[in-house]
């Protein structure tokens, strides 16, 4: 996983921890996902 070490921790479940970083970081990492597998929805 690239992007943010605080956002992704493959050694734990759930492995995505969005509360550890700001919203802009989450959006940026998802927008640059090369496979397009990640998505987000603003609430």
UniProtKB/TrEMBL annotation:
It comes from the Bacteria. This is Protein of uncharacterized function (DUF1271). Residues 2-43 form the Divergent 4Fe-4S mono-cluster domain. Pfam families: Fer4_19. InterPro entries: Divergent_4Fe-4S_mono-cluster (IPR010693). It comes from Klebsiella pneumoniae.
């Amino acid at each position: 996983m690239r992007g943010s070490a605080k956002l992704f921790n493959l050694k734990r479940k759930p492995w995505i921890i969005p509360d550890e970083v700001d919203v802009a970081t989450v959006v940026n990492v998802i927008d640059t996902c090369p496979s397009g597998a990640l998505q987000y929805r603003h609430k």
